[in-house]
Amino acid sequence: MSRSPYDTGPQLPSLPEEILAYYERGGELTRLRQGAGRLEFWRTQDLLRRLLPEAPARVLDVGGGTGIHAEWLAEDGYEVEVVDPVPLHVERSGRLPGVTARLGDARALPADTAAYDVVLVLGPLYHLPERADRIRALAEARRAVRPGGVVVAATINRFAGLNDTLMQGNYFIPERRERTDAVSAHGRHRYSSADPHFTTAYFADPADVPGEFAEAGLAPDGQYGVEGVAWLMGGVEEWLDDPERREAVLAATRRIESEPTLLGASGHVLTVGRRPGEELEGRLG
């Protein structure tokens, strides 16, 4: 099997210093395991269990963090490998039973061609403000997945920051409002030491993502709002604490997950694509 044309041998991933510093704080250890973040976790899990082929299958979890999804995927019977540019994440995810982990950049994956049934890209597109880099990461996912295989990528929605700062009350702080309005206009969140709540990032218009998939050689196959509108409602943390209400929230969000008029209200969107089969690739090539 061939290697990535971008793979020049063992090297540390080229990650901007502010992004590495943000994730080395260790926030990903708990972000999706407590509070309102559990909605994102449970909904992502729900979607992947419906979208992925049955286990056993080989899954490459690109930007898999501390293994929040790799852990349950391995428990479900999948063969999971995590690639992440943050040493802390690789160390933590590599401890999980049934999971292997290595350092790597989504734009130059340390992975053989057509070696996986599924490639997950559930974080890298957040931190690639340049369209060319996002296309490159998606093209690498396409290369690593087998013909007919599934690629699932997550994006942060264009107005997620605006909605979140309104909900938290931070929008009424003039400096935060100015920065938030700028991101709403162009999607680029620039790191500022005066505003350490997040790091360099890109907030995507969900309507643009299928085109990026197509440019990378993937056939788009659906989009799904992860949190829907539930994440913006007061009381969601308490609802998630109650098993009966939690199931009602998840079911309600599932009902609207692909409604076009509501897709952009979600905090995150999953976009699904497939690598064309060998016969189609031959015609295209």
From TrEMBL:
It is an enzyme of class 2 (transferase). One of its GO terms (biological process) is methylation. Keywords: Methyltransferase, S-adenosyl-L-methionine, Transferase. Pfam families: Methyltransf_23. CDD domains: AdoMet_MTases (cd02440). One of its GO terms (molecular function) is methyltransferase activity. InterPro entries: SAM-dependent_MTases_sf (IPR029063). Its EC number is 2.1.1.-. This is Class I SAM-dependent methyltransferase.
